[in-house]
Input
Amino acid sequence: MDLGLRGKRALITGGSKGIGLAIARSLVAEGASVGLVARDPVTLAEAASELARPGVDVAVAPADVTDAEALGAAVTTLAGHLGGLDLLVANAGGTVGSGNLASAGPGDFTATFALNAGHAAELIRFGLPHLRAAGGGSVVVISSVTGMRPAPRTAYAAAKAAEIHLAATAAQELAPMGIRVNAVSPGSLGQVQARQPRCLRGLAGERVPARQAGPPGRSRRRRDVPAVRSRVVGHRGQCHGGRGADLPERPPL
Output
């Protein structure tokens, strides 16, 4: 499927593995060049080697996304290597400490916010001049279904909810500049099911619309996420206005 991404230039945080790398694979397959940001230079080099192909630029910049100065430098480096930026993907995230208030250490809650919503806001801020120079563009924030429905790990849930609202408000602010902003909220992925079976059984009992979270008890595959994300950022996509893009139905196993 041609999504109008050929020749576009994308920056992905947390792009060396997991969902971020899967998104990078999807974009490269559509003919887009990609810049990856992550902390580990080794995994970044491995990812770049995997993604390399004729006619597509792949660049990397090691950085801690919670360090605003380092993130800004990474954006500048990658934009320079790729010749500009058209797409931003704020994918890096996670939980600092236990994630729950009763067992969290000092600063864990705010650190989790910085890793998720904080880094997403800074990425948009640093990337904005490059998107404007390109005549517009697209931003996708990778949030979580946890940000839509409360679940264990209080800090993570609150931070992911903040990301969804960030996308919605940023979409209104940046629309006059020709910049689309959306959030994608994946459900539980396969590896999470093994770690938190009790949590997932509880979520399976909730009446969550299938088009948002999938049939009860069914975890998402990592490859489902980039498929949605590519459609959201593609210039032929229709999502705009900070909407939490829905994941497609997973076919029966």
User: Anything to note?
Assistant: The chain has one domain: 9-243. The two ends are 24 Å apart (CA to CA).
